[in-house]
Amino acid sequence: MSRSLTQAVLLVDGYNIIGAWSCLKKTRDRAGLEAARWELVEAMTSYSAFQGYETLVVFDAQYQNTSSNKEVITELLSVYYTDFGQTADTYIEKACASLRSSIAQSLISRVIVATSDRAQQLMIQGYGAEWLSAQQLCQEVQATVCRVRQKYQPRKKSNSRFLANSIDAKARQRLAELRMELK
Fold first, then answer.
1. Strands ordered across the beta sheet of 9-13
2. What is the pLDDT of residues 91-105, one digit of tens each?
3. What is the pTM of this model?
4. Given a cut of 90, is residue 12 above it in pLDDT?
5. Is position 168 within any domain?
6. pLDDT in tens, 136-169
7. Into how many domains does the chain fold?
8. Residue 5's pLDDT is what?
9. Is residue 182 part of a domain?
10. What pLDDT is stored for residue 1 in this prediction?
11. CATH, residue 91
């Protein structure tokens, strides 16, 4: 998505969120870290699409001897694995610093960082970014899932062939009143 159309950039501290959400901790403990990572990515894919946020989920590669890697999942969501020795916190702080100029130029309206790390919260707010705790993000993701279900849930179909049975009671009452006035 072009920067001029982006309402917000959301940076997610991946392992911090996994450690804070009980459902992801259960997945991590039961099926492993890879499964928990992808469960988070799936949740963020839907959330980002619904909110219109350009989202980057950042995972540490701090303890693995690998170079950085970015995977584009959708137009709005990417996953970034940091360089060996670099923390997700450091990467997010640098991203906030570089995105500050995009806010000043009105290319994006806001930068949001999702983490429950208190030191990280203070640092990113110094760069003008908004902070969202892991629990707040969890609640927003769950609320979004509910809104999506309501929006796309098929309407209940009537078992009757009569139009009057497929409309609400108030409309049915008004139609009856109109019919009586005509007689």
1. 69-72, 77-81, 54-59, 9-13, 111-114, 130-132
2. 999 999 888 877 666
3. 0.75
4. yes
5. no
6. 999 999 888 888 777 776 655 556 666 666 777 8
7. 1
8. 47
9. no
10. 40
11. 3.40.50
Q: Are 73 and 54 in contact (CB under 8 A)?
A: no
Amino acid at site 46: S
Q: Is 165 inside a domain boundary?
A: no
pLDDT for the residue 154: 64
Range of the domain at 126: 3-155
Evaluate whether residue 180 is within a structural domain. Answer: no
